[in-house]
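Query form — protein Amidohydrolase family protein

QUESTION: What is the three-dimensional structure of this chain?
INPUT:
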Amino acid sequence: MKNLYITILAALTCFSGIVAQQTPAPKQSRAVTIVGAKAHLGNGEVIENSLIIFEDGKITQVMDALTTKMQYRGEIINAEGKHVYPGFIAPNSTLGLVEISSVRATDDEQEIGEILPHIRSLIAYNAESKIVESMRPNGVLIGQITPRGGTISGTSSIVQFDAWNWEDAVIKEDDGLHINWPVTFTRGRWWEGETGMKANKEYAEQVMNLARFFQNSKAYLAGDQKQVHLPFGAMETVFTGKKKVFVHVNGEKEILDVLQFKKEQGLNDLVLVGANDAHKVAAQIKENNVAVLAKRPHSNPTQDDEDYDFSYKNARLLHESGVLVGLESSGQMETMNTRNLPFYAGTVAGTGMDKEEALKLITSNTAKILGIDDIAGTLERGKDATLFISEGDALDMRGNVLIKAWIQGREVSLESHQTRLYQRYSNKFKDQKSSPE
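ANSWER: The structure tokens for Amidohydrolase family protein are given below.
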């Protein structure tokens, strides 16, 4: 019996080591100086031989190491031959809301209903998700956690990816309202023998219902509000401008209708998400001072007459038209695919966009669009020390090999469940190779 007890205890100990969650890094206790690295500032500028100092979670110095005699402070990291980047930012993400999509108990990305502006994704965010920790080894350190479903999905929040819980993770609480704009055409159910595309006869009515909800919300907020109405009440921060409006839309006509809706409802801060046909009406988008979070470049063309490489160059076309554009990664297997965010930017660079401009698609541009450019998105004095050191070009799969990363000055682990499995099984095969035949 004693031997059985010892065996069970040993097994439980081993199992706990496998499934244990990572402990978030402690607060920065001393200054860190990175010297010699090629610094990609995230604003289009590069310092070939940089000196970066940060302490108390904030960047205090970013300069050319060859033109300064500043004394190094705290922990000194010689990063000669390596690259330093600001942490990449993943907008419109369901990270932490879905763990295993086929297990309903771990899927909390969507609520029942159509008009849900009062739903907050933040309180459902699982900071201990194994998928979230797998973002850090690729340099994705910040994300906008966004609900799905319905006409108005709810409210997103922006978090950093090393925390005990959602309260510790939050960077910007309830940053934006997310609307799924109605579509003019729907795809037929092929298994029912329906045609490929057919007109949505209810499109005008669906848009009218959305406008009516906005009008009713304004009327409610202008009244005494004696009777509590959570959806109407949640719209107050939208009308005061404290909360951005993110409209998920793709078609050309739909985008133009969104721009008209923006004017009619007096929405000053609106962002288009996905926006597949945005390049066709880029002039109108720019004129209305609207930003775009373009769909991920690793996507198939959605229309018969699109170029085979359209998805690769969509962001570049918008950028060349003067539209503020970032990249988002929603779609099939979106949670785990978010780690590919830097490679999406690399793909855009491969179609003719300057590489430092492509970097802005996942750093400074996204920070501006999300309203966190005062603390994130670039390597500048006064901003959060959320950055990483890579062996090579972080937009290239071959060069994206992180050796150190920090979030708000805290050095975070670059291990994940996947890296541990890799090490475990690579050691197994090493042992087999070294064994005599």
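ADDITIONAL NOTE: The chain is about 30% helix and 20% strand.
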